[in-house]
Structure formats: C-alpha cells, structure tokens
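Quick note —
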Amino acid sequence: MSIKTSSVSPKARILPTLCLATTLAMLAFATTATAAEGDRLTGDDIRQEVWGHRVQGAMASGQQYDEVYRQDGKIEGDGYTGQATIVDDRMCFDYGDDKPTCYGVRRDGSDSIEWLEGDEVVGEGKLGNAE
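Predicted structure written out below.
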C-alpha cells in the first residue's frame, strides 16, 4: 500500500500570506483615515475633526453661531462658555442650563459639517482655525 502525499508549491503558500498582509494594511488605513464627505462622524472622528477648531454657521431656526471647541471639550463663544462631551457618536453641548443638547455630525465637504437630529439636518457650520 502506498501513501500519496501532496506537495504545496511555494507560490501557493505565499498567496494567503499576501492576502492577510493586504487586509491588515487596509484595516490600519481605515482606522486612521478621516471621514469622507457625506460620512457621519464617530465620536473619535468628532474629537479629531471638530474639537480644536472654530465652527461658524447657523442652525435651522436661523440662530447664527461662532464657537471654538477646545481639545478638552470646552466651548468658547462671544461672551459665554460651555462644555462639550461625546455620547453615542454625538456631540453634546452643555451651556450650564442642565439641558445638554446632542447632535450627530456629518462631513459636508472638506471644511463643512452638518449637525443632525436623527437623519435630519438641523444646522451647518464651517470649520476654521481655533485661534
């Protein structure tokens, strides 16, 4: 009785290794890339792309705003301050009235964002330098 053995060519062993390496590289890129236009931002994206910037814009009600969102979450406006936090991938604003308001954030161009309640746009803003 003879036992048949199979041999695997070296090329056949390399292909799975290359596929794994490519997949890992793609995952690494995906976790460090910034959100593309139209993408809803995660909490980490909000910290990286909104905090540390000035945002000027308007809400759907017509209220204009010009605020700086510091890296520690402190909000600075003209004559007032507040504190921002991230809750469930939404940016929450507390201006001291014990009624924080939370919005989702979506990228709307390279320097523009939209504030969302659910999927409805309730405001927009332009990102600028914090200083």
